[in-house]
Amino acid sequence: MSNLNKTPSSNRLHISIFGKRNMGKSTLINAITGQNLAIVSDFAGTTTDPIYKAMEILPIGPCVLIDTAGIDDVGALGDLRIKKTMEVVRKTDIALITVDYNGFLEFDYNIIDILNKNNTPFIVVINKADIEKPNSDFLTELENLNYPYINLSAEQKDRMEDMKGLIIQHSPMEFESPSILGDLIEDGDHIVLVIPIDTGMPKGRIILPQVQTMRDILDNSGIIHTCKDTELQATLDGLKHPPKLVITDSQAFERVSAMVPEGVLLTSFSILFARYKGDLNRMVDGAKTLMSLKSGDKFLVSEACTHHVQKDDIGRYKIPKWIDEKIDTGIDFDIVAGRDYPENLKDYKLVIHCGGCTLNRKEMLGRIDISYREGVPILNYGLCIAALYGILDRALKPFPEVNEIWKKK
């Protein structure tokens, strides 16, 4: 079982609770976890915004529970709450749809339709079994539709082990991302990690993608050498044999590429995460669009996390500046940050996304899907920087199939 403190939220199974108001969603969360995590009230609409709680639940393991506002909420504020609830679907690995003994109403069918369109598995939880048995016609409907379901009382905390068993049984096997680079290295391979220390680096620590990459190398019995870009040449000179792979922060790509011998594979943390969190094959499409931008076009910069913006912020300042210098002037852009991601991208030629380390894989893939449905290619910061500096060919060499796709463009 994974240790709670060692499993980032983005790598946990995301379990979302959906349903009409006053169906006992918060009570169900408290029953599953055995804790009073969510506020419970007889007053309909107590939960107003999605509530996220990362924890470890035996025997499920590390997970994130998401309590949502009632999908039948009313009024202008209710519409906003429903919108937030729908956004949760993008990151949901498995959903619990809470209903009572009367069966489905229009609201339930709507959320089921959305879950099906997003290929999100779900379990129907018939709550309030302590009050009344479910309608027999409703049970027949569930069986005819082949929907997994369970009848229980969250209030009395009965059948919780059965509930957990169903979650394990119906959770997608692929909810966890593939190995970051386990298929690229062999036991004993030497890997050099280049981590510049600049104003964007959190004081006293290194950022999540770098930590996760280190752990993945250790899990695959690789040998790590870590240095700043200013110490890279000394690090390479000190090795008895050339390393199998050099992984750099994307912002140091140009300097690092000049130092690393051509026979040594080179890529960036961000490009590794394009594959780990998303779809590197499709993101390569965005690199071609990037190089064809012209004055009057507009692109969208999407940052998955919220952070203090500094004067040399990579997404807000550096990338737009480099695009202006290396492609064309007069190319405009907008910024979205955090959980916001627009459904309507018609005003944009391209989306340039961060590495997505704070997103789970389901949500990153969902954002890629939205972009392609809208006909707007997407790439991430690492691919963007490598393309701008003319070294994307080299940065994709560790991934032969993707490199072939890029060469054909």
CATH-derived topology of the largest domain:
Rossmann fold
Strand content: 15-25%
Question: Spans of 5+ residues with little confidence (pLDDT < 50)?
Answer: 1-5, 39-48
Question: What class would the helix/strand composition place it in?
Answer: alpha/beta
Strand segment tally: 14
Order of helices and strands: EHEEHEHEHEHEHEHEHEHHEHEEHEHHH
- The portion of residues assigned to helices is 25-40%
Q: Strand arrangement, largest sheet?
A: 2-3-1-4-5-6
Under CATH, the homologous superfamily of the largest domain reads P-loop containing nucleotide triphosphate hydrolases
Number of domains: 3
CATH architecture assignment of the largest domain: 3-Layer(aba) Sandwich
- Report, as a whole number of angstroms, the end-to-end distance: 44 Å
The largest sheet, given as strand count, sense and whether it forms a barrel, is: 6 strands, mixed
**Radius of gyration from the alpha-carbon trace, in angstroms:** 24 Å
Mean of all residue-level pLDDT scores: 86
Name the shape in a single word.
elongated
Can you tell me about this structure?
The chain has 15 helices and 14 strands. With 409 residues, it is an alpha/beta fold. It folds into three domains: 4-175, Rossmann fold (3-Layer(aba) Sandwich); 190-271, Rossmann fold (3-Layer(aba) Sandwich); 279-407, 3-Layer(aba) Sandwich (Rossmann fold). α4 (136-145) links the parallel β5 (122-126) and β6. α10 runs parallel beside α15 (400-407) and α11 (314-326) runs parallel beside α13. It is elongated. Residues 15-128 form the G domain. It comes from Psychrilyobacter piezotolerans. Residues 282-398 form the Hydrogen maturase F tetramerization domain. Residues 180-278 form the Hydrogen maturase F dimerization domain.
